[in-house]
Amino acid sequence: GAVVSQHPSWVICKSGTSVKIECRSLDFQATTMFWYRQFPKQSLMLMATSNEGSKATYEQGVEKDKFLINHASLTLSTLTVTSAHPEDSSFYICSAREQLNTEAFFGQGTRLTVV
Amino acid sequence: QKEVEQNSGPLSVPEGAIASLNCTYSDRGSQSFFWYRQYSGKSPELIMFIYSNGDKEDGRFTAQLNKASQYVSLLIRDSQPSDSATYLCAVSGLSGGSYIPTFGRGTSLIVHP
Which residue of B has its CA nearest to A33? Predict the structure, then answer.
């Protein structure tokens, strides 16, 4: 399958700081990228859908000013968690797909711990 | 609101048996169906996708789709302990002009030696 690389794999940051997570499609052009959050033993929660060159579409209840998403190229999307707090600690995962309604591939995920 | 339902399990099967995982969905307009495997602490990994009614086989895995019954399943033959994981069903179709996959909550599979 196609390769989606997410970086970093884990990060620990102090409360109040910002953290940037990168998601890259290595062998295909991703017209759409998705960002998810997953708490322990819970299901995936879609945070936002990102299409290259346009603003991300956020799911209800997700603060767009706190979770900044940029999809500046067909191979790179970034998620910035601004002014992180301990309740933002979670497993953040991106996925990417090449065309509409085709399979999406997941990155390795980023485990964020805010202390 | 589109819904994808899966039995949370755990589904426990002996090594070498066939594991059958089921998924139902609410949106009749759904067009694409995916099965992902997620090991604890890891991100989901695509196992199979299916678009047409019927069966699709890939190695030990078979996906079955019945659009009339709004039902998709995954069979795992010759189950191995390494197959123990949570299996996520995802369904996608045109909604509001975009194809956003909807995930089920997953079924936990345990394959015991």
Answer: B100
Q: What is the pLDDT of residue B79?
A: 98
Q: Is the pLDDT of residue B96 over 70?
A: no
SS3 A91: strand
Residue A73, C-beta contacts closer than 8 angstroms, at least 6 positions apart: A52
Which chain B residues touch A49 with a CB distance below 8 Å? 98, 100
A82 burial type by CB count under 10 A (0-12 exposed, 13-18 middle, 19+ buried): middle
pLDDT digits (tens, 9 = 90+) for B49-65: 999 999 999 999 999 99
pLDDT band at B92 (very low <50, low <70, confident <90, very high): very high
Instruction: Name residue A95's beta-bridge partners.
Output: A34, A106
* Interchain contact, A49 vs B92, CB within 8 Å: no
User: Mean pLDDT throughout B30-56?
Assistant: 96
Question: For A103, which of B31, B49, B100 is closest by C-beta distance?
Answer: B49
**Contact check, Cβ <8 Å, A101/B32:** yes
Q: Would you state the torsion angle of the CA atoms of residues B43, B37, B63, A94, taken in this order, to the nearest 10 degrees? A: -10
Asked if B43's CB is within 8 angstroms of A101's CB, the reply is no
Give the span between the Cα atoms of A71 and A32, in whole angstroms: 9
User: What is the C-alpha to C-alpha distance for residues A48 and A41, in angstroms, rounded to an integer?
Assistant: 21
- C-alpha–C-alpha distance, residues B63 and A31, integer Å: 27
